[in-house]
Amino acid sequence: MTAKIQGANQPSGFVIKGWHVAAMVVGFFAVVIAVDGLFLTLAYRTHPGQVAAKPYETGLLYNAEIKRFRDQQALGWRAATEARPGMLVLWMRDRDGGPVTGLKPTALFQRPATEQGAMRLTLVETTPGQYEARRDGLTGAWDVRIESDDDQGRDFVAERRLIWR
Questions:
Q1: What is the pLDDT of residues 38-97, one digit of tens each?
Q2: What 8-state DSSP symbol labels residue 99?
Q3: Which of helix, strand or coil describes residue 51?
Q4: How far is it, in rounded angstroms, from Cα 81 to Cα 79?
Q5: Strand ranges (DSSP E) for 49-154?
Q6: Nearest-CA neighbor of 119 among 134, 104, 133, 107?
Q7: Domain count along the chain
Q8: Which CATH number does the domain housing residue 81 bear?
Q9: Which of 44, 53, 82, 109 is placed for a possible disulfide with 89 were both Cys, Cβ 3.0 to 4.6 Å?
Q10: Contact at 8 Å (CB) between 162 and 88?
């Protein structure tokens, strides 16, 4: 004789089906996306956008640089440079292509990847509008920033990457 246990073979009221699993997966990712969206919103609202230690002073310097650039464009001077063995040659021309004379330009040399070995050289006018600086041992790539002004206080800055072979 076999005894029947009451309720052992009776199905329970709830059965997990495929759509239940799909709803749980979609719900899980909906919660993850909602939390990520909340964190992104909070991050954007609370980030000051500051990328400099002294943003006000940096902004003033940037505004001065923009003014200097506009003044330089209005001046119409043009610079051309050449890297010759042991020498930097600079040609300065005005708006009409004539030589700009009487300048005392300086050139700041820096390596592109490091500040090591940085140097400042003074260029000397050799012919009208042509300036040269001599330095033995110049090899490889250098970022050169040339700064000059004339007797009237008009500034000129040119930046180039030059390669000595």
A1: 999 998 888 877 777 888 888 889 888 899 889 989 999 999 999 999 999 999 999 999
A2: B
A3: coil
A4: 7
A5: 78-84, 87-93, 106-110, 119-122, 124-127, 130-134, 140-149
A6: 107
A7: 1
A8: 2.60.40.10
A9: 82
A10: yes
